[in-house]
Write a structure and sequence with these properties.
alpha/beta
Protein backbone atom coordinates (compact mmCIF):
# COMPACT_ATOMS: atom_id res chain seq x y z
CA UNK A 1 0.00 0.00 0.00
CA UNK A 2 1.33 3.40 -0.92
CA UNK A 3 1.00 6.45 1.25
CA UNK A 4 -0.77 9.48 -0.10
CA UNK A 5 1.15 11.27 -2.85
CA UNK A 6 3.70 13.84 -1.85
CA UNK A 7 3.18 17.52 -2.59
CA UNK A 8 4.58 17.09 -6.11
CA UNK A 9 2.32 14.14 -6.81
CA UNK A 10 5.16 11.62 -7.05
CA UNK A 11 5.23 8.34 -5.15
CA UNK A 12 8.72 7.31 -4.09
CA UNK A 13 10.02 4.16 -2.43
CA UNK A 14 10.79 6.09 0.77
CA UNK A 15 7.15 7.27 0.85
CA UNK A 16 5.79 3.74 1.10
CA UNK A 17 4.19 2.48 4.30
CA UNK A 18 5.49 -0.75 5.81
CA UNK A 19 3.12 -3.54 6.88
CA UNK A 20 3.81 -2.63 10.52
CA UNK A 21 2.69 0.95 9.91
CA UNK A 22 -0.56 -0.34 8.50
CA UNK A 23 -1.22 -2.73 11.38
CA UNK A 24 0.07 -0.88 14.43
CA UNK A 25 -1.02 2.42 15.92
CA UNK A 26 -0.32 4.51 19.02
CA UNK A 27 -3.95 5.62 19.06
CA UNK A 28 -5.19 5.52 22.64
CA UNK A 29 -2.05 3.67 23.81
CA UNK A 30 -0.49 6.56 25.77
CA UNK A 31 -1.77 9.39 27.95
CA UNK A 32 -0.29 12.76 28.92
CA UNK A 33 -0.49 12.65 32.71
CA UNK A 34 1.82 15.47 33.78
CA UNK A 35 2.90 18.85 32.42
CA UNK A 36 5.05 21.68 33.73
CA UNK A 37 6.37 24.92 32.26
CA UNK A 38 9.12 26.67 34.20
CA UNK A 39 7.89 30.13 35.27
CA UNK A 40 11.22 31.88 34.76
CA UNK A 41 12.26 33.59 31.55
CA UNK A 42 15.71 34.61 32.83
CA UNK A 43 17.70 32.29 35.10
CA UNK A 44 21.25 33.60 35.66
CA UNK A 45 21.31 31.96 39.10
CA UNK A 46 20.56 28.42 37.90
CA UNK A 47 22.44 25.83 35.87
CA UNK A 48 20.85 24.16 32.85
CA UNK A 49 20.91 20.82 34.67
CA UNK A 50 19.12 22.40 37.61
CA UNK A 51 16.39 23.68 35.30
CA UNK A 52 15.95 20.15 33.93
CA UNK A 53 15.56 18.89 37.49
CA UNK A 54 13.05 21.58 38.41
CA UNK A 55 10.80 20.98 35.40
CA UNK A 56 10.97 17.22 35.97
CA UNK A 57 9.89 17.73 39.58
CA UNK A 58 7.05 20.01 38.47
CA UNK A 59 5.69 17.53 35.93
CA UNK A 60 5.88 14.65 38.41
CA UNK A 61 4.01 16.68 41.02
CA UNK A 62 1.38 17.64 38.45
CA UNK A 63 0.84 13.94 37.67
CA UNK A 64 0.96 12.85 41.30
CA UNK A 65 4.01 10.63 40.80
CA UNK A 66 7.60 10.44 42.07
CA UNK A 67 10.89 9.99 40.23
CA UNK A 68 10.98 6.39 41.50
CA UNK A 69 7.99 5.71 39.23
CA UNK A 70 9.85 6.75 36.07
CA UNK A 71 11.13 3.90 33.91
CA UNK A 72 11.58 5.77 30.63
CA UNK A 73 13.48 8.99 29.96
CA UNK A 74 13.65 11.17 26.85
CA UNK A 75 15.84 14.25 26.28
CA UNK A 76 17.54 16.07 23.41
CA UNK A 77 20.65 18.12 22.75
CA UNK A 78 19.81 20.70 25.41
CA UNK A 79 20.48 18.14 28.18
CA UNK A 80 24.00 18.74 29.58
CA UNK A 81 26.19 15.73 28.89
CA UNK A 82 23.46 13.89 27.01
CA UNK A 83 20.98 11.27 28.18
CA UNK A 84 23.44 9.27 30.31
CA UNK A 85 24.66 12.26 32.31
CA UNK A 86 21.18 13.76 32.62
CA UNK A 87 19.52 10.56 33.82
CA UNK A 88 22.29 10.14 36.38
CA UNK A 89 21.93 13.74 37.55
CA UNK A 90 18.18 13.31 37.96
CA UNK A 91 18.66 10.07 39.88
CA UNK A 92 16.62 8.01 37.44
CA UNK A 93 16.72 4.24 36.99
CA UNK A 94 15.17 3.56 33.60
CA UNK A 95 14.77 0.60 31.30
CA UNK A 96 14.14 2.66 28.18
CA UNK A 97 15.67 5.93 26.95
CA UNK A 98 15.83 8.05 23.81
CA UNK A 99 18.05 11.02 23.00
CA UNK A 100 16.70 11.83 19.53
CA UNK A 101 17.60 15.42 18.66
CA UNK A 102 15.74 17.14 15.85
CA UNK A 103 16.02 20.66 17.23
CA UNK A 104 12.82 22.41 18.20
CA UNK A 105 10.52 19.51 17.31
CA UNK A 106 12.49 16.96 19.36
CA UNK A 107 9.93 16.83 22.17
CA UNK A 108 7.01 16.20 19.85
CA UNK A 109 9.06 13.44 18.24
CA UNK A 110 9.78 12.12 21.75
CA UNK A 111 6.05 11.94 22.47
CA UNK A 112 5.49 9.69 19.49
CA UNK A 113 8.47 7.52 20.42
CA UNK A 114 7.33 7.36 24.06
CA UNK A 115 3.87 6.23 22.96
CA UNK A 116 5.46 3.55 20.78
CA UNK A 117 7.63 2.38 23.69
CA UNK A 118 4.64 2.26 26.03
CA UNK A 119 2.57 0.35 23.46
CA UNK A 120 5.44 -2.14 23.09
CA UNK A 121 5.82 -2.56 26.84
CA UNK A 122 9.31 -1.07 26.93
CA UNK A 123 8.33 1.40 29.66
CA UNK A 124 5.19 2.44 31.51
CA UNK A 125 5.89 5.98 32.75
CA UNK A 126 8.10 8.20 30.60
CA UNK A 127 9.59 11.58 31.45
CA UNK A 128 10.52 14.13 28.76
CA UNK A 129 12.51 17.23 29.74
CA UNK A 130 13.69 20.43 28.05
CA UNK A 131 15.73 23.26 29.54
CA UNK A 132 18.19 25.91 28.45
CA UNK A 133 19.64 29.34 29.11
CA UNK A 134 20.05 31.20 25.80
CA UNK A 135 18.96 34.48 27.39
CA UNK A 136 21.59 34.28 30.12
CA UNK A 137 24.59 33.23 28.08
CA UNK A 138 26.00 32.99 24.60
CA UNK A 139 24.27 30.84 22.02
CA UNK A 140 25.65 27.29 21.91
CA UNK A 141 27.80 26.38 18.90
CA UNK A 142 25.78 25.49 15.85
CA UNK A 143 25.90 21.89 14.68
CA UNK A 144 27.80 21.33 11.46
CA UNK A 145 26.95 19.05 8.60
CA UNK A 146 28.10 17.98 5.17
CA UNK A 147 26.62 21.13 3.67
CA UNK A 148 28.46 23.62 5.88
CA UNK A 149 31.29 24.37 3.44
CA UNK A 150 28.77 25.34 0.78
CA UNK A 151 26.36 27.37 2.90
CA UNK A 152 28.48 29.06 5.56
CA UNK A 153 30.18 31.23 2.95
CA UNK A 154 26.85 32.96 2.30
CA UNK A 155 26.34 33.91 5.97
CA UNK A 156 23.13 32.01 6.53
CA UNK A 157 21.44 32.89 9.84
CA UNK A 158 18.14 31.82 11.33
CA UNK A 159 16.62 35.21 10.55
CA UNK A 160 17.67 35.57 6.94
CA UNK A 161 16.75 31.98 6.07
CA UNK A 162 13.21 32.48 7.42
CA UNK A 163 13.07 35.89 5.79
CA UNK A 164 13.88 34.15 2.52
CA UNK A 165 10.90 31.81 3.04
CA UNK A 166 8.63 34.76 3.75
CA UNK A 167 9.81 36.66 0.68
CA UNK A 168 9.27 33.64 -1.55
CA UNK A 169 5.79 33.04 -0.13
CA UNK A 170 4.92 36.66 -0.83
CA UNK A 171 6.26 36.37 -4.38
CA UNK A 172 4.32 33.20 -5.20
CA UNK A 173 1.05 33.82 -3.37
CA UNK A 174 0.74 37.55 -2.74
CA UNK A 175 1.09 37.19 1.02
CA UNK A 176 1.60 40.55 2.74
CA UNK A 177 3.43 41.84 5.80
CA UNK A 178 0.08 42.98 7.18
CA UNK A 179 -1.20 39.40 7.08
CA UNK A 180 1.90 38.09 8.86
CA UNK A 181 1.49 40.81 11.48
CA UNK A 182 -1.94 39.45 12.43
CA UNK A 183 -0.21 36.33 13.81
CA UNK A 184 1.78 38.44 16.26
CA UNK A 185 -1.35 40.44 17.11
CA UNK A 186 -3.25 37.24 17.98
CA UNK A 187 -0.38 35.98 20.14
CA UNK A 188 -0.25 39.27 22.02
CA UNK A 189 -4.01 39.19 22.71
CA UNK A 190 -3.45 35.86 24.45
CA UNK A 191 -0.21 36.76 26.24
CA UNK A 192 -1.85 39.63 28.13
CA UNK A 193 -3.55 37.03 30.35
CA UNK A 194 -0.38 35.01 31.05
CA UNK A 195 1.39 36.31 34.15
CA UNK A 196 4.61 34.58 33.14
CA UNK A 197 4.68 35.79 29.52
CA UNK A 198 7.78 37.76 28.58
CA UNK A 199 5.80 40.21 26.43
CA UNK A 200 2.29 40.95 27.72
CA UNK A 201 1.48 44.15 25.84
CA UNK A 202 -1.24 43.89 23.20
CA UNK A 203 0.07 45.13 19.84
CA UNK A 204 -1.54 46.19 16.58
CA UNK A 205 -0.74 45.42 12.96
CA UNK A 206 0.76 48.90 12.72
CA UNK A 207 3.00 48.24 15.73
CA UNK A 208 4.40 45.15 14.01
CA UNK A 209 4.97 46.93 10.71
CA UNK A 210 6.64 49.87 12.45
CA UNK A 211 9.05 47.69 14.42
CA UNK A 212 12.62 47.56 13.06
CA UNK A 213 13.29 45.41 10.02
CA UNK A 214 15.42 42.40 10.97
CA UNK A 215 15.58 40.44 7.73
CA UNK A 216 13.35 41.70 4.94
CA UNK A 217 10.38 41.18 5.07
CA UNK A 218 10.48 40.10 8.74
CA UNK A 219 10.24 42.83 11.36
CA UNK A 220 11.39 42.49 14.95
CA UNK A 221 7.85 41.70 16.10
CA UNK A 222 7.70 38.91 13.53
CA UNK A 223 10.41 37.13 15.54
CA UNK A 224 10.04 35.03 18.68
CA UNK A 225 11.42 35.91 22.10
CA UNK A 226 14.63 34.39 23.51
CA UNK A 227 14.15 32.95 26.99
CA UNK A 228 15.72 30.77 29.64
CA UNK A 229 13.60 28.10 31.28
CA UNK A 230 12.15 24.81 30.22
CA UNK A 231 9.32 22.32 30.50
CA UNK A 232 8.56 18.65 31.07
CA UNK A 233 5.96 16.02 30.23
CA UNK A 234 4.89 12.72 31.76
CA UNK A 235 3.53 10.04 29.41
CA UNK A 236 2.01 6.84 30.71
CA UNK A 237 -0.32 3.92 30.08
CA UNK A 238 -4.09 4.10 30.13
CA UNK A 239 -4.28 2.03 33.30
CA UNK A 240 -1.91 4.28 35.23
CA UNK A 241 -3.48 7.47 33.85
CA UNK A 242 -6.91 6.34 35.08
CA UNK A 243 -5.49 5.79 38.55
CA UNK A 244 -4.32 9.43 38.78
CA UNK A 245 -6.43 12.47 39.56
CA UNK A 246 -5.83 14.55 36.43
CA UNK A 247 -8.30 14.84 33.53
CA UNK A 248 -7.56 12.19 30.92
CA UNK A 249 -5.72 13.40 27.80
CA UNK A 250 -4.78 10.68 25.36
CA UNK A 251 -2.64 10.70 22.25
CA UNK A 252 -4.54 9.56 19.17
CA UNK A 253 -2.32 10.52 16.23
CA UNK A 254 1.34 11.26 15.59
CA UNK A 255 3.44 11.97 12.53
CA UNK A 256 7.04 12.96 11.89
CA UNK A 257 8.95 13.84 8.75
CA UNK A 258 12.18 15.36 7.44
CA UNK A 259 12.71 17.79 4.57
CA UNK A 260 15.85 19.11 2.95
CA UNK A 261 16.87 20.66 -0.37
CA UNK A 262 18.67 17.42 -1.39
CA UNK A 263 21.34 19.27 -3.29
CA UNK A 264 18.76 21.55 -4.92
CA UNK A 265 16.49 18.76 -6.17
CA UNK A 266 13.70 19.65 -3.71
CA UNK A 267 14.35 23.34 -3.17
CA UNK A 268 10.92 24.78 -2.46
CA UNK A 269 10.80 27.39 0.30
CA UNK A 270 7.00 27.64 0.52
CA UNK A 271 6.21 24.38 2.32
CA UNK A 272 7.59 22.41 5.25
CA UNK A 273 7.82 18.76 6.26
CA UNK A 274 4.43 19.35 7.87
CA UNK A 275 2.88 18.37 4.53
CA UNK A 276 3.87 14.79 5.46
CA UNK A 277 3.79 14.71 9.29
CA UNK A 278 0.35 16.35 9.45
CA UNK A 279 -1.56 13.94 7.19
CA UNK A 280 0.05 10.97 8.94
CA UNK A 281 -1.16 12.22 12.32
CA UNK A 282 -4.66 13.00 11.06
CA UNK A 283 -4.98 9.62 9.37
CA UNK A 284 -3.93 7.74 12.51
CA UNK A 285 -6.27 9.83 14.67
CA UNK A 286 -9.18 9.40 12.26
CA UNK A 287 -10.00 13.12 12.28
CA UNK A 288 -9.58 16.09 9.93
CA UNK A 289 -8.31 19.66 10.38
CA UNK A 290 -11.92 20.84 10.57
CA UNK A 291 -12.40 18.77 13.73
CA UNK A 292 -9.59 20.50 15.66
CA UNK A 293 -10.84 22.86 18.39
CA UNK A 294 -7.42 24.30 19.35
CA UNK A 295 -3.98 24.34 17.69
CA UNK A 296 -0.54 24.93 19.15
CA UNK A 297 1.64 25.93 16.19
CA UNK A 298 5.38 26.46 16.44
CA UNK A 299 5.97 30.21 16.06
CA UNK A 300 9.68 30.90 15.78
CA UNK A 301 8.59 33.55 13.26
CA UNK A 302 5.21 34.62 11.93
CA UNK A 303 5.98 33.00 8.57
CA UNK A 304 6.52 29.69 10.39
CA UNK A 305 2.93 29.74 11.60
CA UNK A 306 1.46 30.73 8.26
CA UNK A 307 3.29 28.00 6.33
CA UNK A 308 2.40 25.30 8.84
CA UNK A 309 -1.29 26.23 8.93
CA UNK A 310 -1.30 25.64 5.18
CA UNK A 311 0.80 22.48 5.35
CA UNK A 312 -1.43 20.94 8.03
CA UNK A 313 -4.52 21.46 5.89
CA UNK A 314 -6.31 24.22 7.80
CA UNK A 315 -6.43 26.09 4.49
CA UNK A 316 -5.13 25.62 0.96
CA UNK A 317 -1.53 26.38 0.03
CA UNK A 318 -1.19 30.08 -0.69
CA UNK A 319 -4.31 31.05 1.28
CA UNK A 320 -2.62 31.25 4.67
CA UNK A 321 -2.39 35.03 4.55
CA UNK A 322 -6.15 35.42 4.25
CA UNK A 323 -6.74 32.71 6.84
CA UNK A 324 -4.68 34.33 9.62
CA UNK A 325 -5.87 37.90 9.01
CA UNK A 326 -8.50 39.87 10.93
CA UNK A 327 -8.15 38.03 14.23
CA UNK A 328 -8.92 34.55 12.94
CA UNK A 329 -6.38 33.03 15.35
CA UNK A 330 -7.68 34.80 18.48
CA UNK A 331 -9.50 32.62 20.99
CA UNK A 332 -13.20 33.45 21.19
CA UNK A 333 -13.01 35.46 17.97
CA UNK A 334 -11.57 33.39 15.13
CA UNK A 335 -12.01 29.96 13.59
CA UNK A 336 -8.73 28.51 14.86
CA UNK A 337 -7.62 29.57 18.36
CA UNK A 338 -3.84 29.17 18.50
CA UNK A 339 -1.06 29.53 21.07
CA UNK A 340 -3.30 30.79 23.84
CA UNK A 341 -0.35 31.18 26.22
CA UNK A 342 1.19 33.79 23.91
CA UNK A 343 3.41 31.28 22.16
CA UNK A 344 7.02 31.83 21.24
CA UNK A 345 6.19 35.23 19.82
CA UNK A 346 5.20 36.62 23.21
CA UNK A 347 5.41 34.10 26.04
CA UNK A 348 8.28 31.65 26.04
CA UNK A 349 10.80 29.99 23.71
CA UNK A 350 13.05 28.14 26.17
CA UNK A 351 16.44 26.96 24.91
CA UNK A 352 15.38 28.26 21.47
CA UNK A 353 13.20 25.15 21.15
CA UNK A 354 9.48 25.76 21.13
CA UNK A 355 7.54 22.51 20.74
CA UNK A 356 7.57 21.57 24.45
CA UNK A 357 5.50 24.60 25.43
CA UNK A 358 3.15 23.90 22.52
CA UNK A 359 2.23 20.53 24.01
CA UNK A 360 1.88 21.98 27.51
CA UNK A 361 -0.64 24.63 26.43
CA UNK A 362 -2.58 22.11 24.34
CA UNK A 363 -2.92 19.87 27.40
CA UNK A 364 -4.05 22.88 29.47
CA UNK A 365 -6.75 23.57 26.91
CA UNK A 366 -7.94 19.94 26.89
CA UNK A 367 -8.00 19.86 30.70
CA UNK A 368 -9.85 23.18 30.86
CA UNK A 369 -6.92 24.72 32.73
CA UNK A 370 -6.10 27.57 30.34
CA UNK A 371 -6.80 31.14 31.48
CA UNK A 372 -10.59 31.70 31.44
CA UNK A 373 -10.19 34.59 29.00
CA UNK A 374 -8.62 32.30 26.37
CA UNK A 375 -10.03 28.88 27.27
CA UNK A 376 -11.66 27.33 24.21
CA UNK A 377 -15.21 26.19 24.90
CA UNK A 378 -15.80 22.44 24.77
CA UNK A 379 -12.19 21.82 23.83
CA UNK A 380 -11.99 18.07 23.32
CA UNK A 381 -9.59 17.78 20.38
CA UNK A 382 -6.28 19.63 20.05
CA UNK A 383 -3.21 19.62 17.83
CA UNK A 384 0.40 20.49 18.59
CA UNK A 385 2.89 20.90 15.77
CA UNK A 386 6.55 21.81 15.76
CA UNK A 387 9.57 22.18 13.54
CA UNK A 388 13.26 21.75 14.22
CA UNK A 389 16.11 23.04 12.14
CA UNK A 390 15.31 25.64 9.49
CA UNK A 391 12.33 25.82 7.15
CA UNK A 392 14.59 27.41 4.54
CA UNK A 393 16.99 24.47 4.40
CA UNK A 394 16.80 21.11 6.23
CA UNK A 395 14.42 20.50 9.09
CA UNK A 396 12.12 18.07 10.84
CA UNK A 397 8.42 18.37 11.59
CA UNK A 398 6.28 16.52 14.11
CA UNK A 399 2.52 16.61 14.61
CA UNK A 400 0.56 15.34 17.61
CA UNK A 401 -3.21 15.08 17.97
CA UNK A 402 -4.66 14.74 21.46
CA UNK A 403 -8.14 14.03 22.76
CA UNK A 404 -9.85 14.66 26.07
CA UNK A 405 -11.91 11.75 27.36
Amino acid sequence: MLAKATLTGHKNRWDQETPAENDLSIKGKAYLAGIYEHPTRHAPDKSTAQLHAEVAKGALEDAGLTKADIDGYFCAGDAPGGVMAMADYLGLKVRHFDSTDTGGCSYLVHLGHAAEAIAAGKCSIALITLAGKPRTGAMPPRATGAEVDFEAAYSATTHNIYGMCAMRHMHEFGTTSEQLAWIKVAASHHAQYNEHAMLREVVTVEDVLNSPMISDPLHRMDCCVVTDGGGALIVTTEEIARSLKKPLVRMIGHGEALKGPRGGKDLNLTYSAGVWSGPRAFEEAGVTPKDIKYASIYDSFTITVLMQIEDLGFCKKGEGGKFVADGNLISGVGKLPFNTDGGGLCNNHPANRGSMTKVIEAVRQLRGEAHPAVQVRNCDLALAHGTGGSLGSRHGSATLIMERE
